[in-house]
Design goal:
Layout: H1 2-15, E1 27-33, H2 48-59, E2 63-69, H3 72-81, E3 87-91, E4 100-102, E5 107-116, E6 133-137, H4 144-151, E7 156-160, H5 163-171, E8 177-181, H6 182-191, E9 202-204, E10 210-219, H7 227-234, H8 238-248
Parallel strand pairs: 1-2, 1-3, 6-7, 6-8
Antiparallel strand pairs: 3-10, 4-10, 5-8, 5-9, 5-10
Helix pairs in contact: 2-8
Length: about 250
């Protein structure tokens, strides 16, 4: 009888701990950074990518939680240092392979230059960009060839904290071009009323620097062994879900 009382007391104690998962319940907690219209706490469902991931994780029977931080470096740091975080999204390059597992790439997007219409950037190879001044959002990763140019000091870059400020640098002629994701740039320019004066004077350069590919990074030993195989299979439809989201976005 005493053993039964101890067992009941223990069950009551554990069932009373706030936030403790119910028996059999599965959850996943990811961290990311703000980048409209893909990850943004101000948008419906917190953005197109979060909307798509919600659908996928629901199919996998996971309760999905996401923390959206203001910069990519902060998001990766939190993923690495906070044991309550299961992973981060999206990744571009596979870093810390001893700590994280990486999904197949599930989304690709054009990454390149935005410029003023009256000052189109003329370049054939990456080194040609050293003749200009650039803008970039702090923490956004440079692609390999650009990184070499920046690290060598050949390309001067002014960094800002937000995409809005990055676009403003370009519109006010403080830089010759900015690095940007195509969709992110077009969405910000279209929807941000503070940038209305630049709407008809800026454009995307007709030559992309690269097509960036994105995926999901999961902390090793945090989730079941079959998690990544199931996610890779279902994530092939992320483009479909994101397109669905954009069609319904005001």
């Amino acid at each position: 009888m005493r053993t039964r009382h101890i067992l009941l007391a223990s069950l009551f104690l554990f069932s009373s701990v706030p936030g403790m998962a119910k028996p059999g319940e599965r959850s996943i907690h990811l961290v990311t950074h703000e980048s409209s219209p893909f990850m943004d706490p101000k948008l419906p469902d917190q953005g197109a990518l979060i909307y798509a991931l919600k659908i996928i994780f629901k199919k996998m029977n996971y309760d999905f939680k996401v923390t959206i931080l203001d910069s990519w470096p902060r998001a990766k740091f939190k993923a690495s240092k906070d044991p309550s975080i299961d992973g981060y999204v999206p990744y571009i390059s596979k870093e810390n392979t001893d700590e994280f597992l990486y999904s197949d790439y599930f989304y690709s997007a054009q990454w390149g230059l935005a410029e003023r219409k009256d000052n189109p950037i003329k370049w054939k190879k990456i080194e040609d960009l050293a003749a200009y001044t650039a803008g970039n959002v702090q923490g956004v990763e440079y692609r390999d060839e650009i990184k070499k140019l920046v690290d060598s000091g050949k390309l001067k870059v002014t960094s800002t904290s937000l995409q809005e400020n990055n676009i403003r640098l370009l519109g006010t002629r403080r830089v010759d071009f900015i690095f940007t994701d195509l969709t992110t740039f077009m969405y910000e320019l279209k929807t941000n009323k503070a940038l209305a004066e630049f709407k008809d004077v800026l454009q995307i350069n007709n030559k992309p620097i690269t097509i960036s590919r994105y995926g999901l990074a999961i902390r090793k030993n945090h989730l079941p062994a079959n998690f990544m195989a199931e996610f890779n299979k279902l994530s092939k439809d992320i483009d479909v879900y994101q397109d669905e989201y954009f069609k319904n976005l005001p």
